[in-house]
User: Fold this.
Amino acid sequence: GEFIPYFQAIVRSDNKQWAGAEVLMRWQHPREGLVRPDLFIPFAEHSGLIIPMTRSLMQQTAILLAPYAQHMEPGFHLAFNITARHCQELDLIEDCRHFLQAFPPGHIKLVLELTERELIVPTEITHQLFAALHELGVMIAIDDFGTGHSSLSYLRTFNVDYLKIDQSFVAMIGVDALSRHILDSVIELSAKLNLGTVAEGVENEEQSDYLTAKGVEYLQGYLFARPLIGDQFITSLLSRFDKRA
Ligand code: C2E
Ligand code: CA
Ligand code: CA
Assistant:
């Protein structure tokens, strides 16, 4: 019970309204306080505990957020981080099915974020897994896009729907012309592949304006919202929804 979800909003670039959220794991340690995921996720992966920990994260998220589904616009995205290890087992299918069943039918979109840093080896299992996830309507995003080596065929094999441009590229905006060219090619590439794009690590107006002008669909970063504990996320969600209603 010490591993809990935090939620960071993702906004639509054209109107800056909340279009979804990424679920980020935190370790609420009895003595150490809140522990950042990069300090424990690698151990959770090595030990295999990442599978039950993610299952628990999905269950906690459903319990917290499902009662507020009516305050989320239809098609609201809820995104979880998944590791290559998850993709060699079929358990994930049931975990996703249960998660979706907690919400009104068709109201939210479940997104699984797979980092580009560790490529998934296609096997009979991964083929079955991605076919079943697709059938359930689960969407796949490639996280940290631009930092790894995924090819066009890789993106096709895993039926990818979104690319998340890594924050190191967003940080290049306003720095120098060469860095900006690198970012521009990453954005152009994702447009050519006909995939939705999300930029993460957006911290200032200059970055937000630049990415919006370049046609990046969704933005995520401290400029819009920090990762929030469940109660605070729900409070913020409700106040926004009330203002619009
Ligand atoms: P990530 O998936 O790339 O998540 C984005 C990270 O960027 C988060 O760090 C988030 O808090 C941070 N961030 C968001 N906006 C900004 C910004 O404007 N500026 C900056 N500098 N940072 C921003 P966090 O929560 O510490 O997570 C770190 C990494 O740990 C995640 O990177 C992800 O790879 C991993 N992680 C987190 N939760 C889970 C999980 O449930 N499962 C797995 N497998 N990995 C997770
Ligand atoms: Ca992520
Ligand atoms: Ca990322």
